[in-house]
Design a protein that fits this description.
The complex is a heterodimer of chains A (283) and B (335). Chain A is an all-alpha fold and 283 residues long. In chain A, 72% of the residues lie in helices and 0% in strands. In chain A, helix 4 packs antiparallel against helix 5, helix 4 packs parallel to helix 7 and helix 4 packs across helix 10. The chains are: A mainly alpha (283), B mainly alpha (335).
Chain lengths: 283, 335
């Protein structure tokens, strides 16, 4: 694909989508480049320079331990982004698999899977997470697996609903009458035709996962101090809000730019593919 | 009637499965639960006592059915930390949570339905755009940020509300009254976005139907068309969205209560995670599953009441089946 066709295709996505993608890209890039561009060591504390305001040395001031807020904000997205990317990918892959299988087999298999999904969705995500974290501790992998377990059922429900009409289409019936096996039918005929739904779902799910991970850090069950993390920074610095507001505001801004960007991208993609996002709850 | 019976049965099955998952998530605790809970310095006698107390000498299945049958009878065991009855601790906390959750639910649903209808009626105008931007922002900002901002504005800059609750679980209603408002506003803000969006989208669909156009051409006032002709049908697909948001208020409560130090269910949950008080955690998860199932059931029955089509023969395949909660709109494609 040449650069021109790529640009033309991108233009068709609409301004909103592109703005959203750009916002996400900026945050992701800054986070990746943070070890190079951070002016200071984000965990080096300095007892002489506590809660400073903005200055040429510290653009966004310092926090209660004298750590540079700009450096901490730049590096503070790493855990959330990494965990979210992994957890969202796992949820979408597992959810799509389970959802399409339920849709394909109908009957009692579908019924059983739906009941199980329903039961898993009956407990709010944050409650499941806290339950799992209190049993297995707060390791990075525990959190990734826990979020995947919590969000796969929700993805499965969406993909199941999206796959059902596709399964009645002539090309699937044709593949079935050719005697093809069920798994090849699923990944060759069904999944490519619900990719639009899956893509929109991925963007939306990523928003929720990032919010969930930050919430977990805020509550003290995510990364442990002194590692910089947006949720944790907001928790640590909010008591000093009146004295040094940037310590709380900058992680809030970074997080908001990322999530607003993802939401805009999800909205734009939804419109582009004709997948109505508004009708979905928060599952 | 058959539908209602089947729906009830499905709820019971869902609840049963949820209890199963909650119980076995905790049973998966690596190693010996008693040793884990007491830490490395525990004496063997203490471990043995706790093992007996937890019934660890019996098989998992026996323990599960014991737990479930006593839970059904209202006995949720005793807290590992305070030694008090979980059911009692839980009911006090749940009462406090309802004090903020019910007003938040009523205000939230009313505001969001009105805003959604308003945005739909003024589609493409400034009103619509403002509402869209507002929903986008409330969708993107986590609850703990909303709560923090509210504390800054209404407790520090303009000190009209207390920032946190100073009394513990024994707080009385009059102690809590001034501290209720900020948590309620936080919960409202965290729940409105999705309801506004789905109401708007559904009302726009409703306005393009033939009966709405006919009513408008007949000269019926726009407001009457909107509220009498369009809204009742438009609310049907919004009901599941409302029910899931209401049920999930219990999740939002965790963060909100922690920030405001409000002695409800969410605060109890966080405290129990820190102390690994598993019986309490299990009980909270089970309670929230009950709330979810009940709210969904209520929404489905309400849909039945609102939509006469759902009351007649529902097995005619030519008709799109009524959607279970949360199914994507794409499933409505005629098949």
């Amino acid at each position: 694909m040449s650069v021109v066709t790529a640009a033309r295709r991108a233009k068709r996505l609409g301004t909103v989508t592109l703005v959203g993608i750009a916002m996400v890209a900026i945050i992701v890039l800054l986070t990746i480049l943070s070890p190079i561009i951070s002016p200071y060591d984000p965990i080096a504390s300095n007892a002489d320079q506590v809660l400073l305001g903005s200055s040429w040395e510290h653009w966004l001031g310092t926090d209660a331990y004298g750590r540079d807020v700009l450096s901490r904000t730049l590096e503070g997205g790493r855990f959330a982004l990494l965990v979210s990317l992994l957890a969202t990918s796992i949820s979408v892959v597992v959810g799509t698999f389970v959802g399409t299988i339920a849709a394909y087999y109908e009957g009692w298999i579908d019924g059983a899977i739906t009941r199980v999904l329903d039961a898993l969705l009956a407990v709010p995500a944050i409650l499941w997470l806290l339950l799992i974290v209190s049993v297995f501790g707060t390791g990075t992998w525990v959190i990734v697996v826990a979020i995947s377990v919590v969000y796969s059922p929700a993805v499965a429900r969406i993909t199941r609903a999206a796959a059902r009409p596709v399964l009645r289409s002539p090309y699937v019936v044709a593949a079935q009458s050719r005697g093809e096996m069920s798994l090849p039918i699923l990944y060759r005929e069904v999944i490519p035709n619900i990719l639009d739904t899956i893509l929109v779902e991925f963007a939306m799910r990523a928003c929720w996962v990032i919010l969930l991970v930050s919430t977990l850090s805020f509550l003290g069950f995510g990364v442990s101090p002194p590692t910089p993390d947006w949720g944790l920074m907001i928790q640590e610095n909010r008591t000093a809000l009146v004295v040094a507001p940037m310590g709380t505001l900058s992680p809030i801004i970074a997080l908001s730019v990322l999530v607003v960007g993802l939401n805009l991208a999800a909205d734009g993609l939804g419109k582009y593919f004709g997948v109505d996002r508004a009708m979905r709850g928060v599952a | 009637m058959i539908y209602v019976a089947r729906r009830l049965l499905a709820s019971v099955v869902t609840l049963f499965l949820a209890s199963f998952f909650v119980f076995f998530a905790v049973q998966a605790l690596p190693g010996d639960v008693a040793e884990q809970l007491l830490g490395q310095n525990a004496t063997p006698e203490a471990v043995a006592t706790l093992r007996a107390q937890l019934g660890l000498d019996q098989s998992v299945w026996v323990r599960y059915f014991d737990w479930l049958s006593s839970a059904v009878h209202g006995d949720l065991g005793t807290s590992l930390v305070s030694g008090e009855s979980v059911a009692e601790t839980l009911s006090t906390a749940f009462g406090h949570t309802l004090l903020i959750a019910i007003p938040a639910m009523i205000i939230g649903v009313t505001i969001s339905v009105l805003l959604g209808v308003w945005a739909a009626a003024r589609r493409g105008t400034k009103v619509d755009n403002t509402v869209s931007v507002l929903t986008l922002i409330t969708m993107s900002i986590p609850e703990f940020v909303v709560a923090t901002v509210l504390i800054i504005v209404f407790a520090i800059v303009i000190p009209i509300f207390p920032a946190v609750v100073l009394q513990g679980p024994s707080a009385t209603f009059s102690d809590l009254l001034p501290a209720l408002w900020l948590p309620i506003v936080t919960l409202v803000i965290s729940m409105v976005a999705y309801i506004i969006r789905s109401t708007r989208s559904s009302t726009i669909d409703g306005l393009t139907t033939e009966y709405a156009t006919a009513a408008e051409l007949k000269g019926v006032k726009r407001r009457v068309v909107l509220f009498k002709h369009v809204l009742p049908t438009a609310m049907l697909p919004v009901l599941p969205v409302i029910s899931i948001n209401v049920a999930w208020l219990l999740g939002g409560v965790v963060v909100t209560e922690t920030v405001f130090n409000y002695p409800g269910l969410g605060k109890l949950m966080i405290d129990s995670v820190s102390t690994r008080d598993l019986p309490v955690l299990q009980a909270i998860a089970l309670l929230s599953a009950c709330v979810y199932v009940l709210v969904n059931l209520a929404a489905d029955l309400l849909a039945l009441l609102l939509d006469p089509r759902q009351r007649t023969s529902r097995r005619r395949s030519s008709r799109p089946r009524p959607k279970p909660a949360l199914e994507a709109k794409t499933s409505e494609v005629p098949t």
